[in-house]
Design goal:
- The chain is of the alpha/beta class.
- The chain contains eleven helices and eight strands.
- It has an eight-stranded parallel beta barrel with strand order 1-2-3-4-5-6-7-8, surrounded by eight helices.
- Strand 7, helix 10 and strand 8 form a beta-alpha-beta unit.
- The longest helix is centred in the C-terminal third of the chain and has 17 residues.
- The termini are far apart.
- GO terms for molecular function: lyase activity.
- Keywords: Lyase, Metal-binding.
- It holds the Pfam family HpcH_HpaI.
- This is Aldolase/citrate lyase family protein.
């Protein structure tokens, strides 16, 4: 299983990876999303999503079966939560709620075995030897120390959580179609800083149109859909169509 190496190499070559976000628990939900053509990764959200540890092995296996890399946003950046996600089948982790460089360095160590890391050995399912490590940029402390964080060893990419970052910086979060907000300049600065240090960057969204906008800005990790969002919008649209008048 070489998906993390493959993703890492593709990012290093400047390729854009397109993914989806999963908050619905269960292997069937993961399989349905992973079967979509052109998907590179699926993020299983254990911080705000419905999946727990018991569902994770099945969800990761169902995702891998379609040639898609299962990544997990861990519940917290603690030693136990990071290790459990990797032990249960994640090919990489998104690490939330991080602060300055020292905190980020400590949490990156949770992802790898010694001597370069502190991860404890105890895999429950077949796992990859070198998981993808993605730091989520969501706090003022991380933003103000971005250049130092980008130089840390063991970091594969930085993924911006724009709503949490906006709140941390004291800005009002805006809708996905909003332009020329304070966060527009912030996101541009983040992308430029990461690219200057040779680090891939992503910006979270749940719609393809916004993913394309961030791709054009320079993001390499673009999340084009979130399963619950797509389901709600699609069902709502069909209900509206069914209730609409058939007359012109």
């Amino acid at each position: 299983m070489d998906e993390p190496t493959d993703l890492r190499d593709r990012l290093a070559m400047g390729e854009t990876l397109v993914g989806a976000w999963s908050v619905l628990p269960g292997a069937v939900a993961a399989r349905t999303t992973a079967a979509c053509q052109g998907l590179d990764y699926l993020v299983i959200d254990m911080q705000h999503g419905g999946a727990g540890e018991t569902e994770l092995p099945g969800m990761c296996a169902a995702t891998t079966a379609h040639g898609v890399a299962p990544l997990v946003r861990v519940r917290s950046p603690t030693f136990a939560d990071v290790g459990r996600a990797l032990d249960l089948g994640a090919h990489g982790v998104l690490l939330p709620n991080l602060g300055g460089p020292d905190h980020v360095s400590e949490v990156l160590g949770h992802c790898r075995y010694g001597p370069t890391g502190t991860r404890s050995y105890g895999q429950l399912v077949p796992a990859v030897p070198d998981p993808l490590c993605v730091v989520m940029l969501e706090t003022r402390a991380a933003f103000e120390n971005l250049a130092a964080i980008a130089r840390l060893p063991g970091l594969d990419a930085i993924y911006v959580g724009p709503i949490d970052l906006a709140l941390s910086l004291g800005h009002k979060p805006h809708g996905p179609d909003a332009d020329d907000t304070p966060m527009t300049a912030v996101l541009t600065e983040i992308v430029q800083t990461c690219r200057a240090h040779g680090v891939a960057v992503g910006v979270h969204t749940s719609h393809g149109r916004d993913a394309r906008r961030y791709r054009d800005l320079g993001a390499q990790l673009v999340t084009a859909a979130a399963d619950a969002t797509v389901l709600a919008e699609s069902v709502g649209a069909q209900i509206e169509l069914a209730r609409s008048s058939s007359r012109p």
